[in-house]
Amino acid sequence: MNALAATSRNFRQASRLLGLDSKLEKSLLIPFREIKVECTIPKDDGTLASYVGFRVQHDNARGPMKGGIRYHPEVDNDEVNALAQLMTWKTAVANIPYGGAKGGIGCSPGELSNSELERLTRVFTQKIHDLIGTHTDVPAPDMGTNAQTMAWILDEYSKFHGHSPAIVTGKPIDLGGSLGRDAATGRGVVFATEALLAEHGKSISGSTFIIQGFGNVGAWAAQILHERGGKIIAVGDVTGAIKNKNGIDIPALIKHKNEGSALKDFKGADTMETKELLVHECDVLLPCALGGVLNGANASDVKAKYIIEAANHPTDPEADEILSKKGVIILPDIYANAGGVVVSYFEWVQNIQGFMWDEDKVNMELKKYMNSAFNNIKEMCRSQNCNLRMGAFTLGLSRVARATLLRGWEA
Ligand SMILES: NC(=O)C1=CN([C@@H]2O[C@H](COP(=O)(O)OP(=O)(O)OC[C@H]3O[C@@H](n4cnc5c(N)ncnc54)[C@H](O)[C@@H]3O)[C@@H](O)[C@H]2O)C=CC1
Ligand SMILES: O=C(O)CCC(=O)C(=O)O
């Protein structure tokens, strides 16, 4: 099942649980606007190359639309549509005053030079600058993009609209980025993990973890789990996977990666088959890379007791059903990885106020938002008699539906 079908299925299930009016249900699913642009750039060798860029603006009932921009070869309209929809429910679950959007360009960022990436980002921004805005749609980083990408968007957008630091979040600190945003998604994942484990009488320091993806989200989650005494026994990325049953030295692994070396060449662990990573024995599994990695082909072999969805839609509906029958507890993406967009909200607020917060305040506020969302989801689970995914979806959906009705929706 593709990402859009899977996301829409979860949405419909939540809508039925809430007993939403069928016309309202239909209207909430349809995106506000779908943008598709051709981005043609000169390559360093003088040839021309063209890439397709997308921005899907899903819903703005609760505020400006918000969501990352992904550079990855698998980016297509359906994938971006699904991710935009997830952002609408995620911002509502986190209870921040935003709607949802997502963007992306179908490209392999690792195969483009820095100057090619800059040209591509600037051309993409030129094509969409009239349709995004500080109070309409605010992009941020996602897979394959980072603070530098946001700096290029800010600069290009500002040529048309004047200096506009709040047009993107996740930008460099020197351009108005927030302290703590780089680590925020990983830190939020750790707060979420802590809350879930505590519910079950467990702790980070008494648990073993496996992490798929060692980029922004995976590496920060690993580092913070490690600082809190968690034992990370296996890690994988696009280049391979490694394991050490005594726990991997995460600061050393981050240093190794930052020196440009592949995971499999890390001396403090043994290599393992990448397909074994997700089904290896552990307490907590954290998918921090692509969508759909837990599916009908591997779900019945998963041995983790808890899955924290740090990636967006890592579990497809077939796997969801198999895992739930096995008693595996899944903390859904629209809550588990919301720390990034929560601190993006803090960044936007700081830009609008022209006042910078210190990092302790950012992290403390992030913890408050994550804990409050967790408690709200648990209340929904109790009142709807449902699992955590449906608890999060019904929470997000009910908030968006209420805002839509209050604004005067008519069938
Ligand atoms: N960056 C952010 O603030 C947020 C990111 N997310 C989600 O978290 C996930 C990861 O995003 P980032 O860490 O930002 O991306 P990133 O580009 O920094 O890192 C991605 C990681 O995934 C690995 N990867 C890629 N393909 C893989 C494969 N086939 N098998 C195993 N590993 C693979 C890469 O090697 C890399 O380590 C995505 O699903 C993204 O949508 C969610 C919320 C916020
Ligand atoms: O920080 C943001 O605005 C969006 C982050 C994002 O794309 C996500 O949560 O999936």
TrEMBL record:
<protein>
    <recommendedName>
        <fullName>Glutamate dehydrogenase</fullName>
    </recommendedName>
</protein>
<feature type="binding site">
    <location>
        <position position="344"/>
    </location>
    <ligand>
        <name>substrate</name>
    </ligand>
</feature>
<keyword id="KW-0520">NAD</keyword>
<keyword id="KW-0560">Oxidoreductase</keyword>
<feature type="domain" description="Glutamate/phenylalanine/leucine/valine/L-tryptophan dehydrogenase C-terminal">
    <location>
        <begin position="178"/>
        <end position="408"/>
    </location>
</feature>
<dbReference type="InterPro" id="IPR006095">
    <property type="entry name" value="Glu/Leu/Phe/Val/Trp_DH"/>
</dbReference>
<feature type="site" description="Important for catalysis">
    <location>
        <position position="142"/>
    </location>
</feature>
<feature type="binding site">
    <location>
        <position position="90"/>
    </location>
    <ligand>
        <name>substrate</name>
    </ligand>
</feature>
<feature type="binding site">
    <location>
        <position position="185"/>
    </location>
    <ligand>
        <name>NAD(+)</name>
    </ligand>
</feature>
<feature type="binding site">
    <location>
        <position position="66"/>
    </location>
    <ligand>
        <name>substrate</name>
    </ligand>
</feature>
<keyword id="KW-0547">Nucleotide-binding</keyword>
<dbReference type="InterPro" id="IPR033524">
    <property type="entry name" value="Glu/Leu/Phe/Val_DH_AS"/>
</dbReference>
<comment type="similarity">
    <text>Belongs to the Glu/Leu/Phe/Val dehydrogenases family.</text>
</comment>
<dbReference type="InterPro" id="IPR033922">
    <property type="entry name" value="NAD_bind_Glu_DH"/>
</dbReference>
<dbReference type="InterPro" id="IPR006097">
    <property type="entry name" value="Glu/Leu/Phe/Val/Trp_DH_dimer"/>
</dbReference>
<feature type="active site" description="Proton donor">
    <location>
        <position position="102"/>
    </location>
</feature>
<dbReference type="InterPro" id="IPR036291">
    <property type="entry name" value="NAD(P)-bd_dom_sf"/>
</dbReference>
<dbReference type="Pfam" id="PF00208">
    <property type="entry name" value="ELFV_dehydrog"/>
</dbReference>
<dbReference type="InterPro" id="IPR014362">
    <property type="entry name" value="Glu_DH"/>
</dbReference>
<dbReference type="GO" id="GO:0000166">
    <property type="term" value="F:nucleotide binding"/>
</dbReference>
<dbReference type="GO" id="GO:0005739">
    <property type="term" value="C:mitochondrion"/>
</dbReference>
<dbReference type="GO" id="GO:0004352">
    <property type="term" value="F:glutamate dehydrogenase (NAD+) activity"/>
</dbReference>
<feature type="binding site">
    <location>
        <position position="216"/>
    </location>
    <ligand>
        <name>NAD(+)</name>
    </ligand>
</feature>
<dbReference type="GO" id="GO:0006538">
    <property type="term" value="P:L-glutamate catabolic process"/>
</dbReference>
<dbReference type="InterPro" id="IPR046346">
    <property type="entry name" value="Aminoacid_DH-like_N_sf"/>
</dbReference>
<dbReference type="Pfam" id="PF02812">
    <property type="entry name" value="ELFV_dehydrog_N"/>
</dbReference>
<dbReference type="GO" id="GO:0006995">
    <property type="term" value="P:cellular response to nitrogen starvation"/>
</dbReference>
<dbReference type="InterPro" id="IPR006096">
    <property type="entry name" value="Glu/Leu/Phe/Val/Trp_DH_C"/>
</dbReference>
